[in-house]
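DATA SHEET
Item: assembly model
Revision: 1
Owner: S.N.
Input lines:
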Amino acid sequence: MFNLPTESIGGRELFVLEFGDIVNYFSPYTAALFAFALIFTALAIVSRPERQVDIAFGGDAYYAKEVDVDLLRFQRFMAIACGLATLGAMVSGDVFNFTLFASLVGITNIGIVAAYRNRHVLNAAFQYGIVAMLATVPLFGGAAIILSSTGTLSMWELFTDGVVVPIIAKVFLVIGVMGEGMAPFYVAKAEITRAQGAPFILMVHVSSLLLFLRVIEIAISM
Amino acid sequence: MIPYLLFATFIGLLFHGIHRKVIARIQGRPGPPIWQEILHTLKFSFKETWIPKTASQILFVAVVFVAIGIWSGALYVLLSGGSLLLLFGVYLLHKIVEHGMGLSSGSPYGKFGAIRSVISAASELPLFVTVIAIYLFTHSLSIADIVAYQEVYGPLLIAAFPAAVAMYLIILSKMHYGPFSIIEAKEIVSGNMTEHFGVWRAGLEVGYALKTYVLLYAFVLLFIGQLPLALMLLVMLLVLISLSFVCAITPMLSPYDTVTVQSLVTGALVIYIVILVVTMG
């Protein structure tokens, strides 16, 4: 046991997973987020996409879109990669690893969306890509400020009372994560639901919300 | 825990019925009996059940279990005095249920509900502000610590009134027939729930009943404190009736107006938090 110093925030430490000097941890909070990411990654693996029904305007006609197998395979691959990155971000005990996982989530999210060959969807993916790329500046900038001001990126150290993290670094981290995948940051994201593949598109939202929940825990704990 | 889950489901469904009754009486209609939602859930449990041919079948079914699972977990967190952050997490993850439910069917109505669910993500932000405000007062996010704090210093309803208003708005945004219920508006049939019938709908009703119970319970627990069960249920009922009044006299907003109102409230609360941070050091 490493005695997680923030028991009053995410609950007491349940289990730690050491990779050298990087120590990932499971508290009730991070374990719950991890479990949720795991469930939706499993769903992305075993689910087939829906056949979207579109209404033909001007009459009573409607048609169901076919499932493109190649598209399905690529989106599923990206959704699984996104799920794995999310799993890593949920239990990471190191700020730099967390930012890396967050940016990987951003990249895989673009992949899930950009796979669909539709003008509106590709436009949304392009805008999403720009926001995600721009967001890496505050994301990694926040981590850099933390390192330069405290000398460590280990959450085990940063969460202790003796270490003071500048508020601007926390704000940068939160903005960075919001840019990597937080829905309110770009309403254009609604356009991506024109794309088929509910289990994979849903992974975009799952990863975004889970990243946001994790960064809030990190920002409050530091 | 299981008997309490059944009790919470029963009370939640009863509250949904009371909500409909109060709205109807305010609007000059007789309204359904208060046990109507319980009967609905029982009826759906025994109706013919199917999965649409166009649906993503596993996801279509899985979201129902996820809805019940997350709110059962939230109830456990609340009763065991766990982390408020987990409750905040469950509330955000409910968005995934709403979104997945709409997308998985392939129906255009479900899809519109799912899109509205995404653009109304602003409704989650006031809860985040509530969490921070509570933390600034209590220096803990453990629900047990927050309850203990109120036993010593009095209800947070007085000390952190704007945060209580934010939490009230959050519950309002999840109430049926409310000004923010755009994802299940009638112009898109039943929105994201359009294609979920039979047992799946019964399961969703159970999940939503638990959600109503948990949110009302959390409001009373976080801003008034721990009360004996009977008194707790009475206060929850009073909060519910006040919400029903708001729902009855407020028209449903358009999707973008919903986001605007919620964003403005969040902005005001952020200012409140900044003032709190400055004054409390």
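QC remark: The mean pLDDT of chain B is 87.
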